[in-house]
Design brief:
The complex is a heterodimer. Chain A is built from no helices and 9 strands. By secondary structure, chain A is an all-beta fold. The radius of gyration of chain A is 13 Å and the shape is globular. Classes of the chains: A mainly beta, B mainly beta.
């Protein structure tokens, strides 16, 4: 199983970019890196995923290190609605504890 | 279209009783997953169904837990002889396929064992 390390919590100011890091040094060569987030009292929702190349979608960008041992989720302009727990999942089905992101107005 | 639905939304049961939790996946999704989330914790994988293949039961915590799925539709998670440590939110998700496919989560069933 890939060992995942994420900060327990992070703070951001509204409308500023946020970089959420994740270390997954034991990831296998074929495992996708998924990111999900969970808003309070809701089920998780998909954010983005990638394998080797950086990825962009309407919600976020995912920067994957060349050796794939770490990745960074980038929210380009944080909003109050982005306050959630963000899960980095390099080992499919293993969600871990995630990073609780708070956004200050 | 309709998302993943789960029922009941809340369930309170006495220790030792059996409970059944239901999940209706998104139509056309071949994969279905069950997770458990204790208060303030991350998600724990329980079981994964993919089409007609044998389910991956590697996450089930004990033989009191079992799950069934009828074809590519409804799934039922059964917990026998419930214990207080079973109290948690049970989340179901479905997807078009396995790894690499987005999982769509239901709202969960909050189980409280008294």
């Amino acid at each position: 199983d890939a060992k995942t390390t994420q900060p327990n919590s992070m703070e951001s100011n509204e409308e500023e970019p946020v970089h959420l890091p994740c270390n997954h040094s034991t990831i296998s060569g074929t495992d996708y890196i998924h990111w999900y987030r969970q808003l309070p009292s809701q089920g998780p929702e998909y954010v983005i995923h990638g394998l080797t190349s950086n990825v962009n979608n309407r919600m976020a960008s995912l920067a994957i290190a060349e050796d794939r041992k770490s990745s960074t989720l980038i929210l380009h302009r944080a909003t109050l609605r982005d306050a959630a727990v963000y899960y980095c999942i390099p080992d499919w089905l293993i969600f871990g504890q995630g990073t609780e992101l708070s956004v200050k107005p | 279209g309709a998302g993943v639905s789960q029922s009941p939304s809340n369930k309170v049961t006495e220790k030792g009783k059996d409970v059944e939790l239901r999940c209706d996946p998104i139509s056309g999704h071949t994969a279905l997953y069950w997770y458990r989330q204790r208060l303030g914790q991350g998600l724990e994988f329980l079981i994964y169904f993919q089409g007609n293949s044998a389910p991956d039961k590697s996450g089930l915590p004990s033989d009191r837990f079992s799950a069934e799925r009828t074809g590519e539709s409804v799934s039922t998670l059964t917990i026998q002889r419930t214990q207080q440590e079973d109290s948690a939110v049970y989340l179901c998700a479905s997807s078009f396929g396995g790894q690499g496919y987005e999982q769509y989560f239901g709202p969960g069933t909050r189980l409280t064992v008294t």
